[in-house]
Amino acid sequence: MTGPDSAPVEDRRDSWEGPIPVPTGANTEFWAATLEGELVYQQCEECGTAQLYPRAVCTGCGVVGPPFETSSGVGTVYSYTVCHVPGEPGFGDRTPYVVAAVDLEEGPRLLALVDCEPADVEIGSAVAVTFWQVSDEAALPVFVPH
């Protein structure tokens, strides 16, 4: 069940043909949160470094097990590319599609799909997260214009 501030989670388990994440180790909590419509990142209590993708140690100071915080899910397109040739199985019918480096309000940057027409995105565009559930264990964070 999703909370009042969570993003939509669209069930695409029957139609998704792309890669499926396998939660393991330090990323297990991240993928569990996606199923609840929450985008989480790690925030080190020792040095303040915010990081995403999840890691066993802080990239700033090396402390083990930095805790997770919930992101607002809002960010800005730092850079993007329009893919005209599918880079993965399951993307052939999506071309052209947008992949962007998104700077979250909280600081971390992540690479993600942007679900929009290529002409509708540019560097500096505001985006918000939504999720596509692709398995019983994970939902992909996908951004949309905001």
Automatic annotation (TrEMBL):
ChsH2 C-terminal OB-fold domain residues: 70-131
Region of interest called Disordered, as start-end residue ranges on this chain: 1-23
Pfam families the record matches: OB_ChsH2_C (PF01796), zf-ChsH2 (PF12172)
InterPro entries tied to this protein: ChsH2_C, ChsH2_Znr, NA-bd_OB-fold, Thioester_dehydratase-like
Domain ChsH2 rubredoxin-like zinc ribbon: 31-62
Name of the featured protein: DUF35 domain-containing protein
Organism: Natronorubrum tibetense GA33
Lineage start: Archaea, Methanobacteriati, Methanobacteriota, Stenosarchaea group, Halobacteria
